[in-house]
TrEMBL record:
<dbReference type="InterPro" id="IPR004291">
    <property type="entry name" value="Transposase_IS66_central"/>
</dbReference>
<protein>
    <submittedName>
        <fullName>Transposase</fullName>
    </submittedName>
</protein>
<feature type="domain" description="Transposase IS66 central">
    <location>
        <begin position="15"/>
        <end position="183"/>
    </location>
</feature>
<dbReference type="InterPro" id="IPR052344">
    <property type="entry name" value="Transposase-related"/>
</dbReference>
<dbReference type="Pfam" id="PF03050">
    <property type="entry name" value="DDE_Tnp_IS66"/>
</dbReference>
Amino acid sequence: MKNEGNKAMDEINTLPHFGGVISHDYWRAYFKYMQAEHSLCNAHHLRELLRAYEQDEQSWAQKMHQFLTGLNTEIIANGGMLSSERQAEVYQQYQTLLKQAEIECPPPPTVSLEKHAKPKKGVVKRSKARNLLERLIKHPEDVLRFMTEAFIPFTNNQGERDIRMTTVHQKISGCFRSMKGAEMFCRIRSYISTCQKHGITVFDALESLFMHNTYPKFIQDVIDKMPTPE
């Protein structure tokens, strides 16, 4: 169903209140949360650009692939972000590439050129290369957000790695036996993954809970700042 993705995310109740940057692969359900900013995964773009070049012989796709990979290398060399002047230059280069791509990969005609042909109803089908190009045209800030914010990654691969263990569990066990068991599994994996991002090993993270009945410092600092319930 059309809104099933949003239904699940609304029930989790994180994204409806999230005001940061959501890094994702252009699943349209994420764009419902307009109070947040968005960053599109460029690993997905690179794969699609490579396909457009190798299978559809779209030369613009090869140029855009080289542009994005070169830009990522430059950003890493500059500590994660470019100067405002350089950002303006890059944005202009990006727009120039898109204009050239529009010539090579135009939208499909909306009216049939055949004599006496009836106009087709509904959305005119586009090629995969054209769909990709229209996405790059429509969301330039979201594609290039990794150059304007030092904390925004080039891809959302880390987010996908964080949920991979859930898929591994399902492949091994076939399923979760109950919703509560699935929620417990996800809560444990979330705790471990977050600790690892803060430089805390899995052993130390679990030892602090089961041996000392305490949270790691970065979690305790958040708890201490939370208002006391009346």
